[in-house]
Hints:
2 domains; TIM Barrel; globular; two-stranded antiparallel sheet; alpha/beta; eight-stranded parallel sheet
Amino acid sequence: MTRNWRSLLFVPAGAPQRWRKAHTRGADALIIDLEDSTQPDDKPAARAQAGDAVRWLHAEGATVTVRVNNDATCLIEDLLAVVTPGLSALILPKVEHAAELAELSVVLDTLEHDRGLVRGSVRVIAVIESPRALERVAQIADGPRLIGVSLGSEDFALALGRPPTPQSLGLAAQTIAYAAAARGLMGIGMASGIGDYTDLDAFARDARLAHAAGLTGAMCIHPSQVPVLNACFGLSAEAVEDARLILEAWDRRVDGVVSHQGRMIDQPIVERARRLLTSAGLL
């Protein structure tokens, strides 16, 4: 992974009419969904199409992930169907223990070997969906193959017995942001639900709050939400210009600090500006 995924768009595995055009929606990554968007009786048919979705979308230039079912009856069958060339990562929902990630990695080692994939090439995003899992997020975030930790806002709110709002989910989102940042992982999610794709102003407000909290991107269910996430989690022209001016001011300093536009600039501020320009490909 060379950059953060600002937007991850869900597409049902059993809906080829949708996933065949998902790569045109502008999302940084696509999530072929075998979990909540697929009813239990429909999972075998959806699973049979999921591998085709991975290969098709990868051939179209998309970054492709799959949300699998994290239960004993479905997980292995899901993995057998989707671990194929073109799969960048698995979205593992309802992670409760770090041991689940270790066990998954062992299975992936075997499948990668058997299918001619580079060992470790299939990465994982762990989804935290309960208060108990949040208590263990530090151990979970140290798990193998991880590139990200995500907040499953709807299920977390359900476990809490409250609607998914910044008041009920703010601490969970912040905790996940800290755990991810401490390990150089993506922190994915928002302190709100993502089901309402009609009120994009509210969606943008919640995305900006998530970005301010330290999260790096979010999942979404509708193409209309993708440009909102890309804008809210992306780099604005103003932020890039400010970072450039900070580095210019720093280069002109005569001692350890320098004044720039009414504020004192020191080493941490300079390093933050340097990282921003590096992520934008300007350094």
